[in-house]
Each structure stands twice: as structure tokens, then as C-alpha cells.
Amino acid sequence: MTKQSVDVLSQDPQQLATEIINWLRPFLNGTTETMDHLVNNAREWCKNNVIPILVPQNNWLTLSLPPQVTMMTCPHPITHMVSTPDSQHVICCSQETNIEMYHLPSRNFVRMFPGHKARITCLYL
User: Fold this and answer.
1) Which InterPro entries does this one have (predicted)?
2) How many domains does the chain have?
């Protein structure tokens, strides 16, 4: 399940089965018996439920999610790193005295913050 499901389920817990169907059905391939069983039970629950529920029947509205993990190559070993509150940038430093900022979605170097005279021992935003 995803973070997007939290908003739906906190407002209406009866939507758990539809969220299971919506988010897990695209990954069904017949090799995971437990997940197949979970999605089939969710479908049965929706079919037998007495309250009206909008049940996803196909995946043409499946949302594409942004990647939750990204990988970057830096020119030097990183000793300290912190993400900005909006998770768009990462601030990092190495054994040297410079702090560097990278843009995570594009994986591009943004800028350097020079000026430290000694080795950097921690980062905090």
C-alpha cells in the first residue's frame, strides 16, 4: 500500500478493500499466492458488501507514482548527508570542507557552499 492510501482510509476505512484492489492488482502475476489470495478476498468483500462502494474493475486509471528511491553518483565519498524538508534536494559533504547541494529528481549538482576552515562533522537543517 502507499502513502496515498492513508488519506483515503483515514476518511473512510470501508475503502480498504478497494485500495487493496487498486494498488496491488497491477502486480499480480500468479506467482505470489498470498497476494493473489489477498486481492481475491478484497474482491469478494466488495461483492458481498451492502454499502455502495466504487470498485476498480480495470487498471486504466492506475496512477504512476514517482520513484521513492533514487541513486546518484558523487565524485567523492560522502560522510554526512541530509535531505531538505520538501525532499527535493540533498545536502552532503565529504572529508573536505565544502558542502554540496544536489537536486534529487534531476540528480544534478546545484551549488557548493564553501568557507569551512575545518572538517565538517555534522549537517542539520
Assistant:
1) WD40/YVTN_repeat-like_dom_sf, WD40_repeat_dom_sf
2) 2
Domain for residue 20, yes or no? yes
Domain annotation covers residue 60? no
Looking at residue 102, what is its pLDDT? Answer: 93
Residues 78 and 33 reside in one and the same domain: no
pTM score over 0.85: no
Closest CA to 21 of 69, 61, 50: 61
* Confidence category of residue 76, pLDDT binned at 50, 70, 90: confident
Cell numbers at 70, concatenated: 533514487
What's the length of the chain?
125
Residue 17 CB burial class (10 angstroms; 0-12, 13-18, ≥19): buried
Q: Is residue 53 part of a domain?
A: no
What distances in angstroms separate CA 111 from CA 1, 9, 53, 72, 105, one per listed residue?
36, 41, 50, 16, 15
Task: Quote the domain boundaries for residue 36.
Answer: 1-48
